TrEMBL record:
An annotated GO cellular component: proton-transporting V-type ATPase complex
GO molecular function terms attached to this record: ATPase activator activity
Bilayer-spanning residue ranges: 160-183
Name of the protein described by the UniProt record: Putative v-type h+-transporting atpase s1 subunit
Top-level taxonomy: Eukaryota, Metazoa, Ecdysozoa, Arthropoda, Chelicerata
Provenance organism: Rhipicephalus microplus
Length: 205
């Protein structure tokens, strides 16, 4: 948990995966769950509209010299965004990561249950992949020291909601087709009345 006058940041865990063999079928993975020591200190602009922070992780197994730097900026849409992320791992320096879709409006905090990041050049070693579990961040505009209402990365129309809407639409199409055919049924104009004169149909060759 990073708690400074210009930034709040929280993450339950960070998982790093990489490979140094382009032909390898599996990646080396390590998950960090412990609090970082020393605590990362963000660097903020005087107006608190921009901030950058570097997270340094201890060596664990094959993961050595691992660190992640993030740059947050206020943008033209009236909110904040992660504009840049770079990682260092072993002898691989300044690995640029893809950071699209990490944005939140002013007055909110950004939260995401699972935030994946991939190396910008995915074909280049070490093919680094990062995964932040329960990640939340805010450039603080108040003195409460608590996160504001969260702006979730999932959005309203999740995959599950879209699938539910498609199923409902399919059922409506089936129901509409059935009703159409029911109304299209045509009955005979006359019926054979047992108490009346018998309807006689004359057939000729």
């Amino acid at each position: 948990m990073v708690r400074k006058d210009c930034m709040l940041m929280y993450g339950r865990s960070v998982t790093v995966s990489f490979t140094e063999d382009p032909k390898a079928a599996t990646f080396n993975s390590v998950t960090y769950n412990d609090t970082l020591s020393p605590m990362p200190v963000p660097q903020c602009s005087s107006d608190k509209q921009h901030a950058n922070i570097t997270l340094k992780f201890p060596d664990s197994g094959l993961v050595k010299g691992f660190s992640v730097s993030m740059v947050f900026k206020y943008d033209y849409r009236g909110g904040y965004a992660l504009s840049e992320m770079n990682a260092t791992l072993k002898d691989y320096k300044d690995l640029q990561m893809r950071v699209k879709d990490l944005w939140w409006p002013r007055g909110f905090s950004f939260s995401c249950s699972l935030s994946p990041f991939r190396q910008y050049n995915a074909t280049k070693l070490p093919q680094l992949q990062l995964q932040l579990d329960t990640f939340q961040v805010e450039l603080v505009q108040n003195n409460t020291g608590q996160f504001s209402e969260s702006y979730d990365c999932a959005g309203f129309f999740t995959t599950v909601i879209w699938m539910g809407l498609l199923v409902v639409l399919l059922y409506l199409v089936i129901l509409g087709t059935g009703v159409f055919f029911i109304y299209d049924i045509r009955t005979n104009d006359r019926f054979d009345d047992p108490k009346g004169k018998t309807i006689t149909v004359t057939a000729t060759d």
